[in-house]
């Protein structure tokens, strides 16, 4: 999946840096670089913009003001030299908040989170043909309905699939990454290197954990903002 992105920044050196970073990431497609929000408006009328790398403090219109004017909001990563806007940025459901000058590894972490979030949003608009999957387990093939899955636990060489009404999980040699790619992104989300959860089964989300009924699972920082953004769409 290609992610169409815009850079909006009034500093030429920042535009150059972010454009260089984008060209190094195969799944990113740079639609345009804009020296301010006003110049960016036409692209939202003629293109499907998935991701915006957005400065905050700019002449005429700030990044946060610009974002509030959009009817259909893309995923946003704020890129700014001012850390005092971080709280406001996350209140606008930003995927991440990067401080200039941005190192490439920090940029990659942010756009990877954005990719997961955009994949989820696009999956919502696609009609799903199936509501189940088949797994190989204990010398047989087992059918499992998505609605029965509580969470998946990835271990070194196999995955445990924990069901709502079963104390004993199914065990399969298929990897957690396999299920991350296979399961519908509007119903399941990865919250940790070892866990994928069913969004429908989430009861409580805290800063470091997710509660599914009586089961508490850790939520790592790498995946937390994507989870918060998805939940924010449902508020």
UniProtKB/TrEMBL annotation:
4-aspartylphosphate PTM positions: 55
Response regulatory domain boundaries: 4-115
Key word Transferase present: no
Keyword set, alphabetical order: Phosphoprotein
Endpoints of the signal sequence: none
SMART domains: LytTR (SM00850), REC (SM00448)
PANTHER family: STAGE 0 SPORULATION PROTEIN A HOMOLOG, TRANSCRIPTIONAL REGULATOR-RELATED
Name of this protein: Two component transcriptional regulator, LytTR family
Species name: Niastella koreensis
């Amino acid at each position: 999946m290609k992610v169409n992105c815009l850079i909006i920044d009034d500093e030429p050196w920042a535009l150059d840096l972010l454009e260089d970073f984008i060209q190094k990431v195969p799944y990113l497609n740079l639609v345009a670089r804009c020296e301010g929000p006003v110049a960016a408006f036409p692209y939202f009328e003629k293109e499907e913009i998935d991701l915006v790398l957005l400065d905050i403090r700019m002449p005429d219109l700030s990044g946060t003001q610009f974002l509030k004017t959009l009817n259909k909001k893309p995923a946003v990563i704020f890129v700014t030299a001012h850390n005092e806007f971080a709280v406001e940025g996350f209140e606008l459901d930003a995927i991440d908040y990067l401080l200039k000058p941005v190192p490439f590894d920090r940029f990659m972490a942010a756009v990877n989170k954005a990719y997961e979030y955009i994949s989820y949003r696009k999956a919502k608009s696609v009609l799903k043909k199936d509501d189940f999957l088949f797994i190989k387990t204990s010398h047989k093939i087992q059918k499992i309905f998505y609605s029965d899955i509580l969470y998946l636990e990835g271990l070194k060489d196999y995955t445990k699939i924990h069901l709502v009404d079963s104390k004993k999980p199914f065990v399969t040699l298929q990897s957690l990454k396999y299920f991350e790619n296979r399961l519908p992104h509007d119903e399941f989300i990865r919250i940790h290197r070892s866990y994928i959860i069913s969004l429908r089964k989430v009861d409580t989300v805290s800063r470091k954990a997710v509660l599914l009924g009586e089961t508490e699972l850790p939520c790592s920082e790498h995946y937390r903002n994507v989870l918060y953004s998805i939940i924010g769409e449902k508020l």
